[in-house]
Amino acid sequence: MSELNRIFGDLKRNYVPGLQWVDVEEMLYGEEAGEEVLLERARKFWSLTMCKQEIHKQEAQLQVLRDLSGVLRAMRDENQTTYSNTDDNWASIITISPASSYLSYIYALIGLAVPPEHVGQAAPSVLNDNLNLQLSLNAVSTYLLTLTIPGSKSYGVFDEDVIEQVLKIFRLLEQNANKSVRANTIWMFFLTICDDLKLVFRYVHFKEHLKARDRIIRCLMEVLYMNFKMGYQNSCAPALHTKCYELFGEIANEHNGDVYETLHLIMRQTFPMHIYTDSPHNVGAGRRGGAMQSGEHISDWFIQLIEKYPDILTRILHFYIECVVSNPIKAWKSTDEKVAINYAAKYDSILFAKCNKSCADFVLEAVKADDAVGIQTRALDLIEKILLHQSEVEWTIFRYDVSKVPREVLLLREVIRCLNDRTFTVRRKACQVLVLALKQGSPMTTKILDESIRFVQFEDANVEALHEPLVEQHELRFEKPGIVQYAFSFEGHEMLEEEVKTIPHMVYQRFLAADNGLARTAGIALLERLVLVNPLIIYNTNFVRETSLLAVDRLASVRKSGLETMETLLEAYSNCFALICVYCRIWACLMSDEDIALQKLALQSFNRMVLKNIQPLEYSNAAKHFMPWRIISTLLMTQPRAYLQERFSILMESESIVTPKLVNVIISHLSTSMATDAWGLLLLLSSRITNNMDALIGIFNSLSSYNMKSNQFLALQLIIGCLKNFSKPALNQLFQKLLTALRTGSIWLGLISSAVNLLNQIYHLSMSQAPSMGSEVPEWQLSLLEDLTIEILNSAENFQNEHTRLQCLLGTYTEIIVMLPKEVDNRIVEIVFKYLQECTRLSESQFDTDNERMTNWMIVIAGRLCLRDTHLANSVSKLYRIILTKNDRPQIINTTLIAINDLGKKHPSILESNFQCILSKLHSNFAMTRVRTFRCVKDIILSGTIKLKGPILISMLSALVDESAEVAREADAFFIRYRRLYNKLLFDHCLKECPFDLNGLAYLRGVRSDSNYKSPLKGPEKEKSRRLLYNHIMSSVDDNTLLLYFGQLKLLAEKTKDNAFVSSPGALTIVQDMLFIMRRICFLTKGKGKEKSSRGEGEEDVGEDEPISPAPSKPAAETAAAGQASTPRGRGRKADSSEEPLKQLERCLRYVEETHRNLKCVMTSELQHSMDTFCRSLAMRFPNYIEFAQPAQFWQKYRSAKTPKGGRKKKRRMDEDAEADGDPEGDPHSADGESDSDNELPLERHKSKPTSSRLSKRTTSCDMLVTELIFQPPDW
């Protein structure tokens, strides 16, 4: 007898004769019954021989089980030869150990460790827990090993129900998930059980027992998930974790079931496991998990199987990828999805390398999914991971199957197309993918993007060309690079060229122009990366114009991103003039930003970009060392110096960025070609300078040449700002020098005011330190005034030779005289007046440059001299009136307007008496003169001196349609401000009055008018200009007010009844203008209000999707000009306030036919056409009202104008569904042959290219930033 038979014989002594395993099952898990029945079953169980709590018997059983397991393991060991396999078959064992008894024995022992509740309650008072546990665990191992004995299925030892009982032992793991001694013992024994299971799956075929196999897989899964969720509870947990994967390897063999189905099952059950990135933390050792170790995740196991089952794993892993992209678990968070996509990229990478299989085709289709943004974004996430990690096919043969076109080409092409997707989420995700690919892309991705972006020729229409200043001596700067010749090193570049060429334009239009701040921020990031690859984007696209607008973005985060992007680009392309211009535009705005944090950020940026890059000339050997001076010069040219100085003074109070060493370095540049910029920088930093500045006096004295006038001016301002940093001897020397220059007239005109101011500052500083105060009037002023009077009289006698000196003397005289309580010398007044009188006798052609310059100066001097004397002020105003009447030279007129405006602030009556003369210059032939005149009139009106009504209002309104863009913008800004401050309903009234007033027929509406005034927009030849003005007014009025205008139909009917009105010249023009306004209202209010017929019909909206109108508190024109408000997003429900205006319209429709009847006798073809188009517009806009309008015969021919609504199928890409500028069905004049100006706005005409983008909504160019942006928002 073999040892195996002997051990089974020993084991048989513990069997219960006649006991079946189903009987034990009944005892443990029988049907529900009463407590007594359950108690009886439990007693039977504990009375079984193998279950009795007798220590010596239990120990004997345990030893037999161990011996049996040991023998079987030895027999299954491939290297073991000592055991005989002769009796290794159930045929020889079954007579010794019957299958039914053996199974009941095993079933009962397993129940000892995991007894049901009623069995546990009926247990003996003394339980050998440890022995019971050992018996159960060893029984499991023994049973599993005995399944490997040949014949186990034939003789009934293999039983799926018994295996189910065996698997209940796995509950012990969860019940003992801690680091106790008992738990360690259990977890350690499970390592043995897993080894035994490996033998089972190796020797026993489960192909016909998939249910049992699947239960085992389920148990192993529970162990893995428990480890990931709760961590490694003890030292054996990591090893058991690994054993589970080894078991999966044994299970995934053909004899245990179809391999594909098996792996598919494992993938489905481990799908949720793909959200874990970290190794389970080791609770037993008290350590955190950290990064996932190799072989610790199911993904590593799948990847290992690729070499064994490449085709099957390709299908399985593609299944996973498709599920993650198209149908992830709903409970997953976005972070979980990203982790799962990481694993998808991992699978794809290894499949591509080992099997030449890629998920690219699927992903490319997924990105195009309609109405499935989630799928699109997850597909883009997967593309991102693929682009970031290098992966190449690792085949050495069959290379002909490997595509020569890198898969990154197709992926990148689709990502670029997604930049123009109709869904913002997709567009933003595509932008992020491209940014990451440009930053951290794989070598292949980087090569493709780098070459494509560098070699493609970017071209935009109407690019803002900046005229770079001449290169200064020794200056190094970034110059526009030449065109790079094509030298692509990868196949398929032609697929990308056209797509890449459109990227900058898409960034500008779809991102920087978007309402969403996140989109704008994403666009900035992408644009930055593009420019870092190809700086030609700066020069060949609308980069300068688009990025300059970031300065006035409504979101602080976008403004911040704009500045940081310019910094990054300037680091890469130091001293690039275009970038410096944009940087200065953004930076100057942030210095006074409403967000204090951005102000500090701007100051820190200035410190990094300017101050820290300043080096002594001998160390200036790179472009970044010259960049600070270019930034300073740009700022001084484009921004008000006083504003910059004020902002620096405020923001540097709590900063210590200005050091004596830095100041000395800047001073060292005062003798170089950067001198002007150095003076300017010192002036900006003057509030924080602590150095002794005596050396500047000597430098200032050397600034005598003509080219250094600006330096002299800056130097004087600097000395004023740092007066306390100079010693007394130095200030005394400077005082004497300036006094002499002023007395002799040997000083530049532009320096006179600053020089006199500096003398005063030095004098007051001296007096503040004196022991006693001096006389009330400084002696130096009296002495200087006397000397100036004498010198002026002498120079006047020799005017031809000393007229230049006379200008300086007069300028100094006017500066000093206002400081002293003295009357102006009449002799000097006569000299000035006499010169101006002579000038008024000259014709425009007789003025040369010197004459004009001298005349301008004399106009200014005359105004200063007469400022304090009413009689003199009236006298000089008469001279000003003559100049305005006889002359139209822009410089002279501009100077005169400024002078008369300044004079009028002191003497308002002068403005009133000369206002008509001033107003006439609004129609000058020179745009500069019209601009200056408008500004003058604007200031007068806003000050309240003159009322905005009648001819003044008409003249100001006509400026809105001026041919000069600057005049039109000035007028737009004025009316926005005036309406906000004084009269919000101005345009509401203008809409009713303008048809009469613009045609010079105000008296026809019962208003007295100035017979001498002629409207600049009167007559048929000005019809287009009037219509432009009407459009502008209507664009600024809310919809209800527009609808109320239909009340004018009654007025029109009444007026046309009057023969006197109809026969008046120009009356029919008024009628046509009113019909035009009402026709345009039909178009402008389309879809803005639902028509509700009093007859109960027309309840549905006849228009298409109702757009959201701007908030009524801020008119459209104002929002367009300020650039700070936009149309509210989202479709909110609001009360329909258009009901009353629509009821009024319904009542007034009868006056249309009446008006037509009244005009029959004077009807012209043009008037008939206007009437027909108006009626058709009414029929299309308000079909339900026209359906019942009376008289029916009149309206019948217009009712056919109704057209059925239609819809357009949505497209995924915006370029596949180009949006039309207007709805062809809803445009009442689309088919009527009307002129293009019918729907044009005045400010639109001044744009270089009409588009439907944000660019079409701007009314200024970027140059407005440089002077006016700081003080008022530009009208973008």
UniProtKB/TrEMBL annotation:
One of its GO terms (molecular function) is histone binding. Residues 1089-1141, 1199-1259 are annotated as: Disordered. GO terms for biological process: meiotic chromosome condensation; mitotic chromosome condensation. Residues 1250-1259 have a biased composition (Polar residues). GO terms for cellular component: condensed chromosome, centromeric region; condensin complex. Residues 1199-1212 have a biased composition (Basic residues). Residues 1098-1107, 1216-1225 have a biased composition (Acidic residues). Residues 1114-1125 have a biased composition (Low complexity). This is Condensin complex subunit 1 C-terminal domain-containing protein.
